[in-house]
Amino acid sequence: MIVHPIKTDRIPIAPTDLLGLLDRYVGALAEGSILAITSKLVAICEGRFVPRETVAKATLIEREAEWFLPTARDEIVLTINQHRLIPNAGIDESNADGHYILWPANPYATARAVHRHLCQRFATQRLGVLITDSTTAPLRYGVTGIALAHCGFQAVNDYVGAFDLFGRRLRVTRVNVVDALAAAAVFAMGEGAEQTPLAMISDLSNLVFSEHEPSDEGLAALHIKPADDLYAPLLQAVRWQTGRSPGIASAEATALPAD
Q1: Which residues touch 106 (CB under 8 Å, ≥6 apart)?
Q2: Strands of the sheet with 84-87, listed across from one edge
Q3: Residue 135, in any domain of the structure
Q4: Residue 86 falls inside a structural domain
Q5: What is the number of domains present in the chain?
Q6: 175 and 115: one domain?
Q7: Is the pLDDT of residue 149 over 50?
Q8: Distance between CA atoms of 213 and 121, rounded to whole angstroms?
Q9: Are 65 and 245 in contact, with CB atoms under 8 Å apart?
């Protein structure tokens, strides 16, 4: 696998045509490659930013989150948003020129639109789109990349029913393809002043491309209901409060007890 970050000019904090911006900076995409796009770039293009002096951060987090914990550490609130356990509902202040940058309103709709545009532009069918962000992990310092949305390839490789090297049948093993690719892309794009909000991922193996947009079944394969999650004892042991964002998930998929 090769990850090639794509340098851009400094993108101003102003609504911008995302497809036009991609046309400007993405000169070629080879058959069988994936274009990774930071969620911050998508959000800026959508106008999903707020001047910091106009709103309290805690109010904004509550507005954007599906669920949140009322306690904060160093102004960081643990939330659940768009099927993700994420600090501050994904709101970010870095590289924001005095603004809060929100998450894209519907990253899957954006991924589908970008995928259609790029497939037409480059006359290819085996091409993927990945919208990325970064987050923390329990008991680990530092951030790693995650996927907010994808299009054009299979998100999960299912090994259930296959055999390992010693003939043992695998019962639960699935590979989270989208987050694995996002981690590599975000590492290559960087977190500081690199000005590389895009990356091309190529020379991929173990990846199944699809001409079709992600189906409901395909998306469901990525998400675990909190009650069924391995971390359910932790998720259900705290007093979550309901945020004001309806999210893009069903209420059943994200329902958590109040205590």
Answers
A1: 248
A2: 84-87, 76-81, 67-73, 241-242
A3: yes
A4: yes
A5: 2
A6: yes
A7: yes
A8: 17
A9: yes
Q: What is the reported pTM?
A: 0.91
Average pLDDT rounded to a whole number, residues 175-195 = 95
Give pLDDT, residue 257.
52
Whether the pLDDT of residue 249 is over 80: the answer is: no
Domain span including residue 237: 49-103+226-247
What is the pLDDT at residue 22?
A: 97
Please name the residue that has the structure tokens 């393809």: 177
Asked if pLDDT for residue 79 goes beyond 70, the answer is yes
CA–CA distances in Å: residue 203 to residues 4, 120, 145, 183: 11, 21, 20, 16
Residues 98 and 113 in one domain: no
Which phi-psi region, left, alpha or beta, contains residue 148 (left: φ > 0; alpha: ψ -120 to 50)?
alpha
| Identity at 239, one-letter amino acid code | R
CA distance linking residue 182 with residue 38, whole number of Å: 9
134 and 15 within one domain: yes
**Assigned domain for 252 exists:** no
> How many whole angstroms separate alpha carbon 91 and alpha carbon 208?
32
Are 125 and 211 within 8 A, CB to CB?
yes
1 and 88 in a single domain? The answer is: no
Secondary structure, 3-state, the chain: CEEEEECCCCCCCCCCCHHHHHHHHCCCCCCCEEEEEEHHHHHHHHCCEEEHHHCCHHHHHHHHCCEEEEEEECCEEEEEECCEEEEHHHCECCCCCCEEECCCCCHHHHHHHHHHHHHHHHCCCCEEEEEEEEEEECCEEEEEEEEEEEECECCEEECCCCECCCCCECCCCEEEHHHHHHHHHHHHHCCCCCCCCEEEEECCCCCCECCCCCCHHHHHCCCCCHHHCCCHHHHCCCCCEECCCCCCCCHHHHCCCCC
What's the CA gap between 8 and 85, in Å, rounded?
30
